[in-house]
Automatic annotation (TrEMBL), chain A:
PANTHER family per record: PYRUVATE DEHYDROGENASE E1 COMPONENT BETA SUBUNIT, PYRUVATE DEHYDROGENASE E1 COMPONENT SUBUNIT BETA
Name of the protein in question: Transketolase central region
Keywords noted in UniProt: Oxidoreductase, Thiamine pyrophosphate
GO function term, MF aspect, one: oxidoreductase activity
Source organism of this protein record: Haloterrigena turkmenica (strain ATCC 51198 / DSM 5511 / JCM 9101 / NCIMB 13204 / VKM B-1734 / 4k)
Highest taxon of the lineage: Archaea
Residue span, Transketolase-like pyrimidine-binding domain: 18-193
SUPFAM superfamilies: Thiamin diphosphate-binding fold (THDP-binding), TK C-terminal domain-like
Length: 348, 339
């Protein structure tokens, strides 16, 4: 299991629970107070406080020079973040919905992600790119994608996907302090916004002090002996729900939350599979060429002998449909996870 | 034109009611008969109506995320559009698109929810018209918040250098979600963008549908006569939040109030009366618009929902066999459990 950097004591010290968005904002505010070079750029991040509350309240404290609304020009402002980062500042740039990445993708994957390498390591790009991901609210194909795989596939950016307020804060501190570009992808459904109710789970106790969660440390959110469920983001909560149901039938599922895709904590996943022998990977991204395939491949590469069964639960290779029955069909839910775990367990 | 405007307004009032239906008392965006985001265009009617009056079915329109008034004016099938918004099987896109992604090939209407990304396809439609030597034209609608976007600026240039029959219509409602116009551009009006590409740019102020009609006649006529592209910016206003559920905390009461004051429909009605159109005619135009809307909504609500399995269709027109999979998750049991 991955080492937990933060003393579990700290976690217990507080009975203050925060939504995931509050936890993220707290980390950003802290870093902005500590370091003048940190600033935030994006659409509707100032007066609106972020469409998904990702910057709620920051304008009041930091003013519009540091919480900057920008024109709808993803290429320009994402690229400007790259330039400012190369000049030694620590920008955080928000891409409102990850689906809009196409507009500014060159700045993301050819500049932000590659400049360090192309410069032979002489240039660093210490910026954070935040973006909302995920469906489950019927907003159709251009506003519901998860796209973890796309970003993790392209080398040069660290990719972070929190599932709880506690993780969100620790990972955000890390992201801002990191000297490399970090893509921080938060699921809309986890943020705790009024108009998009969150499931139980992402709202957790969060220490007031700053703390970091190292990248590449997956977290076992539930221990179990029979089947390993590897997932991230919203689907950690769906997997936990499934695990509770399965427990009633005597199937003991372990739920591993990856927390970061780059770097990926293969060790924790491998150890879990070595224990259970059965692997189910759950992802809200498209099935082909993505996270599910990657995890299975990594386990197979050096743990083939441990592997008795494999299941993948992901969005089949279709754009996200609008109407509810169809969206429900393609986005994995707890029931889909339950069936996959049963199948892996050899129950059918 | 008046009819298109009142139809659009009434349509959106009814959509608003239906949308809020399942979302009371607590607003949950995914609840109710119309889930997802809903961007209403109350206050934008003059632009859709004034421009589309000059268009034929074979002319192409690309609309942005706030499309209903343009769709209504372009003659998109109202019933099937409504069914789409309600996520029904008989909707324009079989429930796959939703309100931001309306496609009606019968009248060459398409939408995109990504800012300014409808501009390049409009250029493509203009290119096709030119290559085929027809006199059809293409119109790309966008908001004033989109005039900084690369896709728009690149499209202006491409249309200009290729002399394509394209008209870009910027709907200036002063706001891009929470961003007031003056904070995103230093030029006084979006029509000035045209100058940089050496093409004509015109601005129509004050929610004036008649003036929009006149300006659009010139721009579209120019395109149809193969005299090249142009840019038309029209002043509209935003009577509501950016999307349903937008608390608009960033907007002053005075601004909201001012928007309510300058209604293009009232203005056109006054114009009509000044030109001797009597009350009865106005009332009957309104009531026939209401009937049409009511009929469309009633029809849409009776339509069946799509089957879950329909989600797997239409990814390709010519589906490849055995390449990648699109299968229900839970049914995929054959790969596991072989111990
Ligand atoms: C490329 C891209 N960036 C951001 C958004 C999010 N977004 C949707 S509408 C909007 C504001 C658009 O303003 P404007 O073009 O003026 O149109 P209006 O909504 O006022 O009609 C923004 C930022 C998007 N859909 N696409």
């Amino acid at each position: 299991m991955a080492q937990q950097e933060t003393d579990p004591e700290t976690e217990r010290q507080t009975d203050r629970s925060l939504t995931m968005s509050r936890a993220m904002v707290e980390a950003i505010a802290h870093e902005m107070r500590e370091d003048e070079e940190v600033f935030y750029m994006g659409e509707d991040v100032a007066d609106y406080g972020g469409i998904f509350d990702s910057t709620e309240g920051l304008l009041e404290e930091f003013g519009c020079d540091r919480i900057m609304d920008v024109p709808i020009s993803e290429t320009a402002y994402l690229g400007a973040a790259v330039g400012a980062a190369q000049a030694g500042m620590r920008p955080i740039a928000e891409l409102m919905f990850v689906d809009f990445f196409g507009v500014g993708m060159d700045q993301i994957y050819n500049q932000m992600a590659k400049n360090t390498y192309m410069s032979g390591g002489s240039v660093s790009v210490p910026m954070v790119l935040t973006a909302a991901v995920g469906g489950t609210y019927n907003d159709a194909a251009q506003h519901s994608q998860t796209l973890y795989g796309t970003f993790a596939h392209l080398p040069g950016m660290k990719v972070v996907v929190p599932s709880t307020a506690y993780d969100a804060k620790g990972l955000m501190h890390n992201a801002i302090r990191d000297n490399d570009p970090v893509v921080y992808m938060f699921h809309k459904r986890l943020m705790g916004i009024g108009w998009l109710p969150a499931p139980d789970g992402p709202k957790t106790p969060v220490p007031e002090d700053d703390y970091t969660i190292p990248f590449g440390s997956a977290d076992v959110k539930r221990e179990g002996a029979d089947v390993t469920v590897v997932t991230l983001g919203l689907h950690v909560h769906r997997a936990l729900e499934a695990a509770d149901d399965l427990a009633d039938d005597g199937i003991d599922a372990e739920v591993v939350d990856l927390r970061t895709l780059v770097p990926l904590d293969t060790e924790t996943v491998r150890e879990s599979v070595a224990k259970t022998g059965r692997l189910v990977v759950v992802d809200e991204d498209y099935r082909s060429f993505g996270v599910t395939g990657e995890i299975v491949a990594r386990v197979a590469e050096d743990g083939l002998a441990d592997l008795e069964a494999v299941e993948r639960v992901a969005v089949p290779d279709v754009p996200l449909p609008y109407a509810r029955p169809m969206e429900n069909e393609v986005v994995p839910d707890a029931e889909d996870i339950t069936s996959a775990v049963r199948a892996a367990h050899g129950d059918e | 034109m008046y009819e298109a405007m009142v139809t659009a307004r009434h349509y959106e009032e009814r959509l608003q009611e239906e949308y809020l239906e399942g979302k009371q008392p607590a607003f949950d965006i995914s609840a109710g008969p119309i889930p997802g985001e809903l961007h209403l265009a109350a206050g934008h009617e003059a632009s859709g109506a004034g421009v589309c009056q000059h268009l034929r079915d074979d002319d192409t329109v690309t609309a942005p995320h706030r499309p209903h008034h343009i769709a209504v004016a372009k003659g998109v099938d109202l019933k099937r559009m409504t069914a789409e918004i309600f996520g029904r099987e008989t909707g324009l896109s079989k429930g796959k698109g939703g309100h931001m992604h309306l496609f009606d090939p019968d009248v060459n209407f398409a939408c995109s929810g990504i800012i300014a990304e409808g501009c390049p396809p409009a250029v493509g439609a203009g290119l096709a018209a030119k290559k085929r030597n027809t006199d059809s034209v293409a119109v790309a609608f966008l908001g004033e918040g989109a005039i900084d976007q690369g896709a728009f600026l690149e499209s202006l240039n491409m249309a200009a250098v290729q002399d394509l029959p394209v008209v870009f219509v910027v709907e200036d409602n002063d706001w891009a979600i929470s961003m007031p116009k003056e904070r995103v551009t230093d030029v006084e009006n979006g029509a000035q963008r045209a100058g940089g590409f050496d093409l004509p740019g015109t601005r129509v102020d004050a929610d004036d549908a008649v003036a929009v009609y006149e300006a659009a006649r010139e721009a579209i006529g120019r395109a149809r006569d193969r005299n090249g592209p142009s840019l038309l910016e029209v002043q509209v206003h935003r009577r509501m939040g950016h999307f349903m559920g937008d608390p608009q905390a960033y907007r002053s009461d005075e601004d909201e109030e001012a928007a309510q004051q300058r209604d293009s429909i009232d203005r056109l009605e006054a114009d009509l009366r000044a030109h001797g159109v009597d009350n009865e005619t106005v009332a009957s135009l309104r009531s026939s618009a209401q009937e049409r809307v009511e009929e469309a909504i009633e029809w849409a609500k009776e339509q069946p929902e799509p089957e879950p399995a329909d989600a797997h269709e239409d990814v390709f027109t010519n589906p490849p066999s055995g390449v990648t999979d699109s299968e229900p998750n839970a049914a995929k049991t054959e790969t596991g459990g072989d111990d």
